[in-house]
Design brief:
Elements (H helix, E strand, L loop, with lengths): L16 H7 L28 E7 L8 E10 L7 E10 L6 H17 L5 H7 L8 E2 L5 E2 L2 H15 L10 H21 L5 H14 L6 E2 L6 E6 L2 E4 L9
Antiparallel strand pairs: 1-2, 2-3, 4-5, 6-7, 7-8
Helix pairs in contact: 3-4
Length: 247
């Protein structure tokens, strides 16, 4: 049987008999399982009609009114083993309009970084390292914030932890036990020095313990930014993360 070619030939390939045999699957051979098409985050991913997210409230002494930070996530590969939530956009709202320009600029830059894909966690350290020339402030729990931008970075970090994008480095059992022993010893030593405190002094100590959860007089730890660094046996030791200047 002949076939008439009416178009111009642009290329050809010689098919050998063994090629046909190799291309034909053997009878009874298992078929290769279909691989799921994994969608990665990139600029071409279109925004869905509905996004899931969280809103955080930031109340800082540097601002007259509170800031409300909303982070919306996109769900990639929904319903598959590769399902993952990733930040897609961020909004910051407040009654205070004094800093409107830099707030809008920050939200647009962060949202563009989220949609770009890749490792979005690299922006956290940059945000948390911003220092306000007027000075920082302490949050509840004794955590020091060098600026309002640093607290926004902390909020973004907390959101990424909530959705499982990043994880806290777990303290090993030996370090956790050592910190508990040092804290117990420090509190026992403090109790001996103040064996007969006045009623006002006792109330003050109770308020300090309730606000931060760490002994009164603790200083700022440079590793975890928590006011939990105490002097024990001639060595500065953090009762929150276990950091010690003596190693």
């Amino acid at each position: 049987m002949s076939i008439k070619i009416e178009k111009k030939i642009t290329g050809y390939t010689v098919v050998k008999p063994e090629d046909k045999v190799a291309a034909t699957p053997a009878a009874g051979a298992p078929k290769e399982p279909r691989q799921a098409e994994v969608i990665q985050m990139h600029e071409s991913v279109e925004r869905p009609e509905t996004l899931v997210g969280s809103t955080f409230k930031i109340k800082s002494p540097l601002f007259e009114h509170a800031l409300y930070v909303t982070i919306n996530d996109i769900v990639l590969n929904a319903g598959t083993p590769h399902e993952q939530r990733r930040p897609f956009e961020i909004f910051i709202n407040s009654k205070n309009m004094d800093h409107f320009q830099w707030i809008v600029a920050l939200t647009r830059i962060l949202s563009a970084g989220f949609r770009k894909g890749g490792d979005v966690t690299v922006i956290l350290e940059e945000l948390k390292a911003v220092v306000d020339h007027r000075g920082g402030f302490f949050k509840a729990g004794g955590v020091y914030m060098p600026s309002i931008v640093a607290e926004i970075g902390t909020v973004v970090e907390q959101h990424m932890k909530n959705i499982g994008l990043i994880h806290d480095p777990e303290m090993d059992e030996a370090t956790r036990q050592l910190v508990a022993e040092k804290r117990k010893a420090y509190e026992a030593a403090g109790a001996k020095k103040a064996s007969a405190p006045t009623a006002a002094g006792a109330a003050e100590l109770g308020d300090a313990a309730e606000s931060s959860g760490f002994p009164k007089g603790a200083t700022l730890c440079q590793k975890c930014n928590t006011q939990a660094l105490v002097l024990m046996d001639g060595c500065q030791t953090c009762l929150n993360c276990g950091y010690s200047k003596c190693g």
